[in-house]
Design goal:
Distance between the termini: 35 Å
CATH topology: Rossmann fold
CATH architecture: 3-Layer(aba) Sandwich
Strand content: 5-15%
Radius of gyration: 17 Å
Number of domains: 1
Number of helices: 11
Largest sheet: 6 strands, mixed
Oligomer: single chain
Shape: globular
CATH class: Alpha Beta
Helix content: 40-55%
Order of helices and strands: HHHEHEHHEHHEHEHEH
Length: 212
């Protein structure tokens, strides 16, 4: 196949075909596989077929939240940029990230904590924010879980895919261990990233749009 002359949608379809073939008997149900396959597609890493963990109701609750116009908040502007706004537009969903807000920088400095922690506290104060997408900062995920534990937040879904060597794996393990029955999508290990987290949102948005 001449990839130089392929349209973007043809390239995507061919990529998914290759992933389906190479993944073999992966064991994921249909809608969950669409989420995992997007993670593989954006990273070219088949390890996600084994490392992804979804709570039993994650896809169902995520799609329902998106169809109701849930606000989405990310831990980085990179994740925000990777989420397809045209896919969310028919659903009426907005996406925000507070980590670069001037008040966040000032507050974090005065309290001696990270901007990621401060931004997460600001995000949960807005009840419209119901889907939390964390692809970079373990501190953001740990703080969100603390806020849930204290009753200060009750997300419709947590997508927790921080990447790195310090705290990333531990924060995802904490999420996967269960947190007040909050639906979640995560993975086991150090891998992850804003691009993968955004890809998961995009996959969910496609499912929600198809059902709306």
């Amino acid at each position: 196949m001449d990839s130089l002359n392929m349209k973007p949608e043809e390239i995507e379809m061919e990529s998914f075909r290759i992933i389906d073939v190479e993944a073999g008997d992966h064991g994921w149900p249909g809608e969950e596989w669409q989420i995992v396959r997007r993670a593989i597609h954006t990273s070219a890493d088949f390890e996600y077929a084994q490392s992804m963990v979804l709570s039993d109701d994650a896809v169902e609750k995520a799609v329902a939240a998106l169809m109701s116009g849930a606000g989405i908040v990310t831990d980085t502007n990179m994740a925000l940029s990777g989420i397809s706004k045209p896919r969310l537009a028919p659903l009426g969903c907005t996406v925000s990230c507070h980590v670069a807000d001037p008040d966040i920088a000032m507050q974090a400095k005065s309290e001696g904590i990270t901007r990621s922690i401060t931004a997460m506290r600001k995000a949960v104060a807005n009840s419209d924010n119901r889907i939390f997408v964390i692809g970079n900062a373990p501190t953001a995920l740990f703080e969100l879980l603390r806020l849930v534990e204290n009753g200060a937040a009750k997300p419709a879904l947590i997508i927790g895919l921080p990447v790195g060597f310090v705290g990333a794996e531990e924060s995802k393990n904490a999420l996967a261990s269960g947190c007040h029955d909050i639906p979640f999508i995560t993975n086991i290990g150090r891998k992850g990233g804003s691009n993968v987290a955004a890809a998961v949102v995009n996959a969910l948005a496609i499912l929600a749009t198809q059902k709306k």
